[in-house]
Design a protein that fits this description.
single chain, 339 residues, alpha/beta, Rossmann fold, five-stranded parallel β-sheet, 10 helices, 20 strands, 22% strand, globular, binds magnesium ion
Length: 339
């Protein structure tokens, strides 16, 4: 169920955890107005943290991307899955523990920041940590796989199955995690979204009693927020489109929806839901014979809210789970298409 906020959303929270790709920028280009909006968040006394599953870059390098786009950010505002993975090891095995790494530069810097020692010989390692690293060698993957099979605990920075690249969407670190885990017959301990450690580490490091996760992806950002019991704002500027939103199972449903991060500064009404579907702000949405139908006129934000609410409440939905219904559109109609 969507939540209501009668006041501008930001007033209810004291920490905003922003995903980066799809929320702050897409393919290196800033989302419209994002620099001003992030500044407004800071001016309101709410701390913005930037939370990334990508473990290949250091927090300094991660912060450089928003800075290039005019968004104020420092390394201290950034929490990576590499740092969360190091924290997992410190919590389980204690400070000073020795770890082996399989990944890129961002992975190397994190253990020292948590007081762990990186070693290259397997003898005294308490665990092995893997992260995305485009230059990782196959011989190192083979060595890691055999160590894990022989009982060395395995911590994965994240399980993202895809990563956006210059070649298009490509296999992400999660593909390697799957390969290692399958080979060794173990389950990896996961640090990144949607697992708890990265969210917990962000709240602990950046501070805040009332955190709000702002993300574009249901199975990392939104599911991660559910995992730690915090509210979430889904923005439609990234990878989630209509088909994913209406098909979302309960653990993937956000608390709030907005076409873009401007939704932080707006109130969030919720649709009225009854046997006829969902109504809000001039829109009516209903699911009929497996097809979603939307009529009326109103704001884009309310359009997303009614289609989500009508779809999630549709009778027989659980029975039809996994069967994707048809939708007559991909997003709110442009003003010139409205009748
Ligand atoms: Mg994203």
């Amino acid at each position: 169920m969507l939540k209501a906020s009668e006041v501008p959303l930001l007033e209810g929270y004291d920490l905003t955890m922003f995903d980066l790709d799809g929320v702050v920028y897409v393919s290196g280009r800033a989302i419209d107005g994002v620099a001003e909006r992030l500044q407004r968040v800071r001016d309101a006394g709410v701390h913005p943290a930037f939370v990334t599953n990508n473990a290949s870059r250091t927090p300094e390098k991660v912060a450089a991307n928003p800075v290039k786009l005019g968004v104020a950010a420092t390394a201290a505002d950034v929490v990576t899955s590499a740092r969360a993975a190091a924290r997992v090891i410190k919590d389980r095995f204690g400070p000073g523990s020795r770890v082996l790494l399989l990944g890129g530069a961002g992975l190397e810097a994190a253990p020292a920041a948590e007081g762990l020692e990186v070693i290259t010989e397997s003898g005294e390692a308490v665990a092995i940590v893997s992260g995305y690293g485009p230059d990782v060698l196959w011989k190192d993957i083979m060595r890691a796989a055999t160590l894990i099979r022989d009982g060395l605990p395995y911590v994965a920075s994240n399980t993202d199955l895809t990563i956006p690249t210059d070649y298009g969407l490509a296999p992400g670190h999660g593909v390697l995690v799957r390969t290692l885990a399958d080979f060794a017959g173990v389950e990896a301990i996961v640090a990144g979204k949607p697992a708890r450690p990265l969210m917990d580490e962000t709240i602990r490091r950046v501070g805040g009693d009332r955190p709000l996760m702002v993300g574009d992806r249901l199975d990392t950002d939104i599911e991660g927020a559910h995992a730690v019991g915090v509210d979430s704002l889904l923005v439609m500027t990234g990878v989630t489109h209509l088909a994913e939103l209406v098909a979302a199972t309960p653990e993937l449903r956000p608390s709030y929806i907005s076409p873009d991060p401007a939704g932080l500064f707006e109130a969030h009404p919720v649709p009225e839901v009854d046997a006829d579907g969902a109504q809000l702000g001039g829109w009516q949405a209903r699911v009929e014979g497996g097809a979603l139908k939307v009529a009326g006129e109103g704001s884009d934000a309310d359009w997303w809210r009614v289609v989500a609410a009508a779809s999630w409440a549709a009778p027989g939905r659980d029975r039809d789970r996994g069967r994707r219904g048809s939708v007559g559109a991909t997003g709110p109609p442009r003003p010139d298409e409205r009748r």
